[in-house]
Amino acid sequence: MTISYEKFDLKEVINASGRMTILGVSKVSEAVLAAQKFGGEHFFEMSELSIQTGKYLADLLKVEDAQIVSSASAGIAQSVAALIGQGSVYHAYHPYTEKVANREIILPKGHNVDYGTPVEVMVAQGGGKVVEAGYANMCSAEHVEMMITEQTAAILYIKSHHTVQKSMLSVTEAAEVARKNKLPLIVDAAAEEDLFKYAEAGADLVIYSGAKAIEGPSAGLVIGKKEYIDWIRLQGKGIGRAMKIGKDNILGFTQAVEDYLKNGSESGASMKERMVPFITDLNDIKNITASVVQDGAGRDIYRASIKVSGPKSAKEVIQELKTENPAIYTREYQANNGIIEFDVRSVNSEEMTKITKRLTEIMN
Length: 364
What we know:
Layout: E1 13-15, H1 30-41, H2 46-61, E2 65-69, H3 72-85, H4 89-93, E3 104-108, H5 119-125, E4 129-133, H6 141-145, E5 152-158, H7 171-180, E6 185-188, H8 197-200, E7 205-209, E8 220-224, H9 226-234, H10 247-263, H11 268-282, E9 288-294, E10 302-308, H12 314-323, E11 327-329, E12 339-343, H13 349-363
């Protein structure tokens, strides 16, 4: 049976938005597809598959242990539940019991963001209660430390372009506060590219998305201290049951990590080089001024940025780009300033030509 856009009456999508969940995040390689196929065609003792793939990845990433989960969001919820329950089977069966009082999760106020769902929703799903530290424009180590009480279960740090970037304590500083107060530190690094940095900085649990920088199938990864990972595995008896991941994606994701460590991701220099003719063509379009900009969170990611002028607003242009087939999705965060960004990591030269053609039609 042939699979196609037409079969389900779907539009083709050009993803110039980035590794976004609403578009299916990323494409996977033939090697990853082969690993998924092997998983789909065979049976396993699932508990052993979880333990052994975790051990394999932990060896690659030089941490005590690792657990593959269904998504980075599931990683947040299950990590919170694990650190609240501390290995209690009773708690796994009764995650919201009033018998467990230590449920406060300290989070810098500027990190309490909506990345597709609010961070605090995932914390609550794990049975935690967000306690904000600092202010929207500033959070220091002292701000975090002053919020610690006897009910504090963990400190949570969100490393993301969605969060406030200025005047925020670093992961290393957060780890020092956690260590000083004998608390675990969770770092959500869902879209980050460095799989070693945050564990080395002192985080006790680090969470990654499987399908973003790693370009694997839908999955999440939690790495860190063995005891805490064991507690996360226990969540399979509790809230983790609703977030279980299939054998095909466990094996596909494991292969994706191995390939990612071997091959890395596209460099910023390569992105800039690929965009040279794209930027030139964009600058030839009426009422558009194009340039190359770096990712706002300082990652080695470069994008095409256009300033829209004339009778149509950036928001109107964005909407028109989505309307036709192929639907073209962009980064919309600065639309109110008349700016549209194009993330080219998943865009080839043919698709860049389609984008230029469509923009020309819209702006003329």
